[in-house]
Each structure stands twice: as structure tokens, then as C-alpha cells.
């Protein structure tokens, strides 16, 4: 079969290796491999997890059986890819410079640069999908979310965030291991006088606490701060940049050993195969034709245990 999309290993290697330091989707919803595009995964219910059946066993009888409540659900990865046009004139100029050794810069390879540009945009969109899932009240159990209408964490006179957070965490059936903050939420929280006093001591209620210090105070393995922006304007219109991760917070149980068939965790990203990149010949690019560089991945972001997270909507005042 003739496939117009020619996967190129060197470009795929760039696509696999490409990362952006300010994106947190892979930390919040770790990638889990699946081996078919359609797959089954366990969706956990915690009703049976804390049962206390009789554990006594007679000399010749079988022990009672217990299982963690779950149901098998079907899912399917989604393909996410974009194209970037590269004129043949640019490729030819690069190859000539490489052969002549004049003006040759390895990083200026137009196909490699196009691959990085495409993967940057694909990953930006993944960040948006992850944020829309994690910062969504519907992703949490009925008792595992709160929308603040007062005592916002940037109301330094009236709020006590550490007390509020302790109450949230104490209500959960499992202690969370990671917390996700929108950037503005973390910035406000890290300067809260009561947070500073709790961490710095000596009645010091000013300054800014570090991410590591706050994680230790909250008993978390990691704090993930969403820094990414996204342009919501229509193509051709002036940019309208908004934070991908809004003014919210989420406390999650993250089990990196969990996969589609074993282990409980708030959520993960099912991934089929590696990121791929390649080219498609396109005679309509420029006078001499060109190549469309295509890069993408097949993934599906999932919440697998709604009760293993707690969501705080409008942790800081949403009013401008």
C-alpha cells in the first residue's frame, strides 16, 4: 500500500525527544503505554475498598475473598497531529550550505525546525486537554470538590489556606501525593502571611516560600505549577493569551506504577506507540514545491478514580 505520509526516523526521534520545560501534563497525567488503539481500562469505585469482612479462616475452609471495586471500560486513543509546510528551496539551500561548509548551522535544518515547531504546538494542545480534564469539577466525586466564594487564598486578611487544605485532605479516602496549582494561585499562596509564618517560623509573615518548602509543609511528593499560555483568538486576529491552568487547585493521588489493568491512581494518559514525524510531498508549496512536515501522537487522557482527587475551584478571587 502506498502511504503518502513518509515516516522519517530522524524526525521521529526529534518528535519523541522534544519537551517544553513549562508544561506539566506529563507530570499530572503520566503516560501509560497501550498496545492497540482500542483498549480497555479499569475505572475504580471505592465502595468496596474499605470493607472489613471476617478474616478468620477455619482449619479446612477457604478464606473470604475481597476485591477492589472496579469496572472494565472501553476507550480509544485519539490521533493528534499538525502539518508545517517547508519549501524545497529552503531544504536545497540548507543542503548546499552543508555540503559547502559555508553558513551551515545544524540547528537550522528546516525539516528539523519544522518538526520542533509542530510538536511544540501539539504539546500545547495536550496541555490544554489535561488542564480541561483536571480542572473540571465533573472529574471529581460529589464530596471531593469545593468552589470558593469567600476566604479566597489571596484574601490575606480573612483566609487560612493551610487549615482549609488540611480539611480537604483529611476528607479524602487516600492521601494525595501531588498538587496542581495554576501559576497565579501558587504565586499568591506562596506569599500568604500565614503560609510564610508556618514555614519560616519566628513570627515571619512576609516573604515567599519555595515550592519545595510548601510541598513539604503539605506532605506532597511534588507541586506542579501550570505556567502555560494559550492563544484563544481566531486565526488572523490579534493574540488573546490566557493561562491554560486557571485560578484553581487540585490535590491528586498519582501512582506512576498504575496502568490500564492494575493500580489505582486519579488519572493517566494512555499512549499508543511513540510520537512520530515525517514528510508528505506537496507540489503546491512555493514555485518548486515542498514538503509538509507532519508530527503527532496517539493518546487519550483519562480519569480512572474520581475519589482520588480534590478540586478547589476559584482558589483565588476570579474577579479581575
Radius of gyration: 25 Å
- The number of strands is 14
**Which CATH class is shown?**
Alpha Beta
- The CATH superfamily title: phage-related protein like domain
Strand content: 25-35%
Predict the CATH topology. Answer: phage-related protein like fold
Low-confidence stretches: none
Q: Could you say what the CATH architecture is?
A: Alpha-Beta Complex
Task: Give the termini distance in whole angstroms.
Answer: 57 Å
Overall shape: it is globular
Q: How many domains?
A: 1
Order of helices and strands: EHHEEEEHHEHEHHHEEEEEEE
SS class? alpha+beta
Organism: Variovorax paradoxus
Protein name: Phage capsid protein
InterPro entries: Lambda_capsid_assembly (IPR053738)
Textual characterization of the structure:
It is globular, with a radius of gyration of 25 Å. α1 packs across α4. It has helices spanning 9-17, 25-28, 88-100, 110-134, 161-170, 183-190, 193-200, 211-218; strands spanning 6-7, 31-34, 38-44, 70-76, 78-87, 145-147, 178-182, 222-226, 229-231, 241-243, 249-252, 267-282, 290-303, 309-313. The protein is of the alpha+beta class. It has one domain: phage-related protein like fold (Alpha-Beta Complex), CATH 3.90.1690. It is built from eight helices and 14 strands. The strands form four sheets. Strands 1, 2, 5, 12 and 13 form a five-stranded mixed sheet that branches. A hairpin with a 7-residue loop joins β12 and β13 (290-303).
Amino acid at each position: 500500500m502506498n502511504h503518502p505520509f513518509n515516516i522519517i526516523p530522524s524526525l521521529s526521534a526529534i518528535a519523541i525527544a522534544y519537551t517544553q520545560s513549562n508544561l506539566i501534563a506529563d507530570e499530572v497525567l503520566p503516560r501509560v503505554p497501550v498496545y492497540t488503539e482500542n483498549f480497555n481500562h479499569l475505572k475504580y469505585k471505592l465502595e468496596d475498598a474499605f470493607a472489613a469482612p471476617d478474616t478468620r479462616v477455619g482449619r479446612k475452609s477457604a478464606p473470604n475473598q475481597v476485591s477492589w471495586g472496579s469496572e472494565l471500560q472501553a476507550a480509544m486513543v485519539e490521533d493528534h497531529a499538525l502539518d508545517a509546510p517547508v519549501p524545497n528551496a529552503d531544504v536545497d539551500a540548507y543542503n548546499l550550505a552543508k555540503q559547502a561548509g559555508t553558513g551551515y548551522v545544524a540547528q537550522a535544518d528546516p525539516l528539523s525546525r519544522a518538526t520542533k515547531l509542530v510538536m511544540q504546538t501539539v504539546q500545547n494542545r495536550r496541555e490544554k486537554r489535561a488542564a480541561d480534564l483536571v480542572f473540571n469539577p465533573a472529574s471529581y466525586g460529589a464530596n471531593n470538590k469545593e468552589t470558593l466564594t469567600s476566604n479566597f487564598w489571596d484574601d490575606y486578611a480573612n483566609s487560612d489556606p493551610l487549615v482549609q487544605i488540611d480539611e480537604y485532605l483529611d476528607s479524602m479516602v487516600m492521601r494525595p501525593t501531588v498538587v496542581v496549582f495554576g501559576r497565579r494561585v501558587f504565586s499568591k499562596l506562596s506569599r500568604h502571611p500565614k503560609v510564610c509564618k508556618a514555614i519560616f517560623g519566628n513570627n515571619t509573615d512576609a516573604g515567599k516560600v519555595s515550592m519545595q518548602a510548601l510541598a513539604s509543609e503539605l506532605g506532597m511528593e511534588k507541586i506542579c505549577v501550570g505556567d502555560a499560555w494559550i492563544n484563544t483568538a481566531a486565526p488572523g486576529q490579534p493574540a488573546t493569551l490566557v493561562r491554560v491552568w486557571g485560578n484553581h487547585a487540585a490535590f491528586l493521588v498519582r501512582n506512576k506504577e498504575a496502568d490500564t489493568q492494575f493500580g489505582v491512581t486519579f488519572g493517566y494518559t494512555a499512549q499508543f506507540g511513540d510520537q512520530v514525524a515525517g514528510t508528505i510531498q506537496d507540489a503546491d508549496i512555493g514555485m518548486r514545491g515542498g514538503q509538509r512536515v507532519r508530527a503527532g501522537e496517539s493518546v487519550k487522557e483519562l480519569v480512572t478514580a474520581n475519589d482520588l482527587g480534590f478540586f478547589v475551584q476559584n482558589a483565588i478571587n476570579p474577579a479581575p
